[in-house]
Write a structure and sequence with these properties.
Blueprint: H1 8-17, H2 22-40, H3 46-86
Helix pairs in contact: 1-2
């Protein structure tokens, strides 16, 4: 997975110029870095998406197969009832 670089020095300098103390700026930049790293761990990759698309296609084909079998069974049941009714 591609790593997104997080420049803590720029963040610390920016926070210090905004009125934060150096310790506050370092703490906040570390917290932001950890939050950014943990949030990118759960991103889907192109490989994940292609696997999901294949699984969806498989499920769709299985669903269509069972729907066809159900419809064929219903037609056979209706014809059997009509045959029994008209005898």
């Amino acid at each position: 997975m591609a790593t997104i670089l997080f420049d803590t020095l720029k963040v610390v300098e920016s926070l210090k110029s905004s009125g934060f103390s150096e310790e506050q700026a370092k703490g906040l930049s570390e917290a932001l870095k950890v939050a950014q790293e943990t949030s990118t761990e759960h991103l889907a990759t192109k490989d994940d998406i292609s696997k999901l698309e294949l699984r969806i296609e498989s499920v769709k084909s299985e669903t269509l197969k069972w729907m066809f079998l159900f419809w064929a069974g219903q037609l056979l049941a209706i014809f059997a009832m009509l045959k029994a009714f008209f005898k």
